[in-house]
Design brief:
- The structure is a single chain.
- By secondary structure, the protein is mainly β.
- The chain has no helices and nine strands.
- The chain has one domain: Mitogen Ypm (Jelly Rolls, Sandwich), CATH 2.60.120.
- The protein has strands spanning about 5-10, 15, 20, 25-30, 35-45, 50-55, 60-65, 70-75, 85-90.
Length: about 90
């Protein structure tokens, strides 16, 4: 099992990407008060990130993909408030 964790207190900060190959991944988001955390994915080898889901409160989610996808989570430009958010992606 691989995991990427990031403490975020600014905009445009994401976990490092993890590759999911036809399986599940877990997202853990905590300490959110006024920021929006976005989960993103892209096809392995491509450069464009696609938004999967956005969160404005703490969350625990399991996602699934078919094929090979890179997954990450973080705070996009313009979505940071004033909190310090803990984000983890586990494959």
């Amino acid at each position: 099992m691989a995991s990427e964790t990031k403490t975020i207190s600014a905009q445009n900060i994401f976990t490092d990407a993890l590759t999911v190959r036809g399986g599940q991944f877990d997202i853990s988001i905590s300490d959110v008060s006024d920021s929006t955390v976005t989960v993103q994915r892209r096809r392995s080898g491509e450069s464009t990130w696609l938004d999967v889901e956005a969160f404005t409160s703490d969350a625990e989610r399991t996602g699934a993909v078919s094929g090979a996808w890179d997954v990450r989570a973080g705070i996009k430009t313009g979505d940071y408030g004033s909190d310090t958010v803990e984000v983890a992606v586990t494959v």
